[in-house]
Amino acid sequence: MQLIFVGFVGVATLLFVLLLFSILGKPPGEEVRHRMEQYLVETEMAAEQYKTPEDEEEKPVEEVNDDDWVKENRAAGGGAKKILANMGTIITPKGMAIRIADQLAKADIPLKANEFVAIQFLAIMISLIVGMGVFKNLLVGIGLAFAGYFVPLLWVSIAKKQRVQAFNDQILDTLIMLANGLKAGYSFLQSLEMVSRETAAPMGKELKRVLKENSLGINLEETLMALNMRVESEDWDLVTTVVLIQRQVGGNLAEILEKIGFTIRQRMKIKGDIQTKTAQAKISGLLVGALPILLGLAIFAINPGFIMKLFTFQHGWFRGWFVVVAGALWECMGMYIIMQIVDIEV
C-alpha cells in the first residue's frame, strides 16, 4: 500500500512540475525556428547554385520531420542515455524542451533537454522514496523531492555563471588580439579565425561556432547576436553593439576595439572597488540572516522540548509552525532586500 502511495505521489509530483513549467515558464519564441528555417533556405539556395551533374545523380535525402530537431533523440548513444532520452521524451513537452535546451547550451552541459528532465524526474522520485522509506515521514519525503527538483537547476545555474565568468575573463585578451590582427592587415573574419585558434574555451569554442555558422550562410551580424544571447555577457554585448554599428557606418575597427577594451578594463576596476567596499555589508547581511537559525539550533541542543513547542503548539486554528513559516519568509525577504541594496550596477 505504501508503494502505491509513493507511486501516486510521484505521478502527482510530475504533473505539478509540468504545470509549474507551463505557468511560470515564458512561452518559447519563434527565433530559433526562424533561424533554422533561414539557414535551410540559404543552404538550399547555395546548394542549387553550386550543384554539379554528379550531385543530381545522387539518391534523394530522406525527408525529415521539421520537429525532429526539438525531440532530441539519441538512438546511437549508450544504454543509459537511451533510457534517459526515451523517458525524457515522454514527459517533456516541446516548449519545455526548447527552454531547457537553451539553458543547457548556455551552461555548456553536454546533455539533451529530455535527458536532463529524466535525470530531474529520477532525482525527485528517489528523494521521495528515501524520505518515505528511510525516514518514514511524508513531509521529509516532500522536502527531499523539492530538493531533488531544484538541485539539477542549481547545478545548471552555477555552471552557467562559471562559464560566463570564464568568458568575461578572456574578453580583454580577445580584443587585443583582434585589434592587432586588424592592424596587421587581416579582415575581421580572418582575425576572428586567428583568435579562435589561439584562444582556449569558452571564447575559442564560441568564436569557432560563429565562423562555422557564417560559413554555412548565416550573416555575420546574426551569428554575433546569437553569440551574445548564448553567453549573456554585458561586456561582450558592448563589443557586439560596437562591431555591428561599425559594419554599418564604417570606421577604424582596430582603434574602436582598443577603446572598448579600455572601457571594459575601467569597468572591471570599478566593479572590484565596489565589491571591496560592499563586502562588509554582504557578510553582515549573511550573519544577521544566519543568526536566528544558529540561535534556534543552540536552543534545541540545550533544551529540545522548549524549541519543539514551535512545532507542537496548538490553540484553535493556530499552529506553532505558522510562526516558523512566517519567520522563514521574513528572513528570505530581508536577505533579498539586503543583497539588492549592496548589489550596485556598473
Largest sheet: 2 strands, antiparallel
Q: Which strand order spans the largest sheet, edge to edge or round the barrel? A: 1-2
The domain tally reads 3
Would you report the number of β strands?
A: 2
Portion of residues within helices? over 70%
Percent of sequence in beta strands: under 5%
Label the overall shape: flat
Mean pLDDT over the full residue set: 77
First and last CA, distance: 58 Å
Number of helices: 16
Extract low-pLDDT stretches: 21-32, 58-77
- Give me the Rg, rounded: 27 Å
**Structural class of the secondary structure composition?**
mainly alpha
Helix and strand element order: HHHHHHHHHHHHHHHEEH
Element layout with pairings:
Elements: H1 2-24, H2 31-49, H3 53-56, H4 68-71, H5 79-91, H6 94-107, H7 113-133, H8 138-169, H9 171-183, H10 188-198, H11 203-215, H12 220-231, H13 234-249, H14 253-302, H15 304-312, E1 314-315, E2 318-319, H16 321-342
Antiparallel strand pairs: 1-2
Helix pairs in contact: 1-7, 5-7, 6-7, 6-8, 7-8, 9-10, 9-14, 10-11, 11-12, 12-13, 13-14, 14-15, 14-16
